């Protein structure tokens, strides 16, 4: 009997051990983060290559790549790299939130390479990659980072490249404020003021001030040496290629200001574009005024003015005619976006204040309510570094930088009314 009991106990213990091991395996979380949509070169004197396949060129020792992932909880994780085509020997540094591991890669290495056990924090985490030494042309070519955990983790990052989401994800989440416009009047004019805080204006930023149903008007940072005031109107013909627009549906330039460039644009719809190279400054407040008015012949005229605070005079940007359109000002809104994917890891912010709409007789009405929304990348939760709404009596938008904390999309916000409409001599506008 004792012998049979011993056999039974052994079998029972073996079964329980196997079951526990099996359950442990099933509860382990293994999540693959593709580098193509989540990696940025954050340091280095030369530009490396981050493509949809991941890090495809890494030649320089002063280069740093940063990968960002948001976690719903703190956890101990095991990181691994997915390596392709390792040519030569190399040593690289993998740093997660200040915890560093050195990884040695041998020529011919491919596949999944374990890094070791590290700690994730709740919120955004940054994984930095640095090259230490190498014998080949590249330190490594990496397609993904695998995050393994005993805990069940919910991680936010750009998960797929459907509809080119790696590109849009690296640009970062675009966010918008849609101002509530009374429906019982026909409005011609919209006035808005924008202030970009010092240090919140990296290259690639578009601080759009005066949006309308058929276009947009705002300021951009195009390079270290160039900034623009941009005003564009979409054609009623839907295409991303301006060459496809038939003549009868093209945007017609009626007038433009001094030194203003005008032409066509594409890729995000198509239409007429105008811009003035203008060295606007962070920390200054700029005023925007534009009009939308039907011409009585089945077309609509769009005109944009910019107030130079130094000379205190309105500058004409341009006036366009949009055919096959009969409308007054609809959907006044502002947005904040980044149009350079390489700078999508940098934070940007703008404050929007003193919004007013006026009818064709110049009667003003203050707009002090706005709805906060985001683009596809924000809606999917692929990037959660966004905010918008009201602070200190002003509306604001903020994105990029992988900061923790965000504002719910589709939330409504109000600012304290100013009560004093802008003073504009409409008959003296250029």
From TrEMBL:
- Signal peptide extent: 1-21
A Pfam entry, by short name: DUF3472
Q: Which residue numbers delimit the DUF5077 domain?
A: 33-151
Keywords on this record?
A: Signal
Task: Note the InterPro entries from the entry.
Answer: DUF3472 (IPR021862), DUF5077 (IPR031712)
- Would you tell me the protein name for this molecule? DUF3472 domain-containing protein
